[in-house]
Amino acid sequence: MTRTPLLLALGLVPILATSACNAADPAANGGAQAATPAATPADQRPFTATEISRFDQPWAMTFLPDGSLLVTEKRGKLQHLDLASGQKHEITGVPKVAYGGQGGFGDIILHPDFARNHVIYLSYAEEGTLDTRGAAVARATLALDASGAGQLKDLKVIWRQSPKVSGEGHYGHRLAFGPDGKLWISSSERQKFDPAQDMGSNLGKIIRLNDDGSLPADNPFASQGGVAAQVWSLGHRNILGMAFDANGKLWAHEMGPAGGDELNLIVRGANYGYPIVSNGDHYDGRPIPDHDTRPEFAAPKVTWTPVISPAGFVIYSGSLFPQWKGSGFIGGLSSTSLVRVAFDGDSAREAERFNMGERIREVEQGPDGALWLLEDGSKARLLKLTPKT
Known about the structure:
389 residues, mainly beta, eight-stranded mixed β-sheet, four-stranded antiparallel β-sheet, 1% helix
């Protein structure tokens, strides 16, 4: 993936001392949309939502080549669901997770050559010393037996947030493989604000690694060494969705503070400005300067105020919904919605919003082109979306 570097004198960027983060001016800046479409009511949705199964606090899912499904549950379980039979089996060998708040088991994805090597990647919150925590990413081999049960073998941690800090929020730890064969990780700022601008920390950054966890020589800050060599972009708050479009561009959404949820086009070496700028404000009412006041920072392509609380993200490439090919789909937590985003080159806008009536944690595309959703919380439904007939 080739990008034009955004040249930044990082050592000259002022670091603002900030505390808690509230209601923002709904004016949209930096190329953000000006209006939000009204949510489409359930009886007018162009799809049927069918309940397939239920899970306890699911966080992420990924399809295996045989069409079955792996689902992570926040408390620390990895479930294997046979969609043909409806049978669910727990996979053993999962690492211990630091469950609590927003922490626990996170994302799960397959190695690009999974059909041959059976390697998977998983993220989770990990305990540290003195009541600290941080996200970790591990790779392992998935060994399934004939019944659909199985275990993880040869598990190895290949990346950790640094430093581990107190608190139980803003881990991020979304995973994706790019068309370049590299592993991409969202590392949120753990509600600590300033680390997002500190190149001595990998918090508040998007990370790019080789598939074994080693450092690519062409990362934008490779010459700085240390954790800076992992970094592709910085100045992020809480990224809970990343997806590559058909042209190899990486898009990522992140939760704003009070107002100002963002969808960003991720550019090599770019600084997205948090906590120096945001289209939201602090939770105690103090304003944060908007993106258009500091043009040296990359501005979001879409912002949302009121927020949608985005979680999960897929850019649709199937044929079951041909009218949506190339659209992005984002789950909404506080907005209890499925949000469709339309792209036009380097621009984006919210095109539709579907009221789902429940918090949506995860969105995935199935092998047949159906859209799959995981609701949030206990007894959360796994929903399959197919066109209405």
